[in-house]
Amino acid sequence: MKEESEIFCADWLKTDVYRDWLEPIPENQHKAWCSVCSITFDYSRKKLNEHAASTGHGTNLQNTKKRKSVRGHLIGKDVRLCRNSVNHTKTERVTDK
Predict the structure, then answer these.
(1) Residue 32: is it exposed, middle or buried by C-beta count within 10 angstroms (0-12/13-18/19+)?
(2) Domain residue extents for the chain
(3) 51 contacts 77 by C-beta, under 8 angstroms
(4) pLDDT-derived band of residue 8, with 50, 70 and 90 as boundaries?
(5) 22 CB burial (10 A radius; 0-12, 13-18, 19+)
């Protein structure tokens, strides 16, 4: 017996379990998108929970969080380097006069 898919529920995007990866598919409210695994699946609470509990999804989610953390850290360093470079250039110009 085939399980009926449900209609996407936007309130589920507010829950800790789904917030970081679940996305609606506007053209089909019976399907959902996992942004960390890059897969589409029939939308049902049972399938969401099975997917969230899967080893592959857990690994992908952790890797995504690590990448975001590293990316944010590197962006902060780039901003500091640019600011220091600008300040250094201004200092040189003042002392060159």
Answers:
(1) buried
(2) 10-96
(3) no
(4) confident
(5) buried
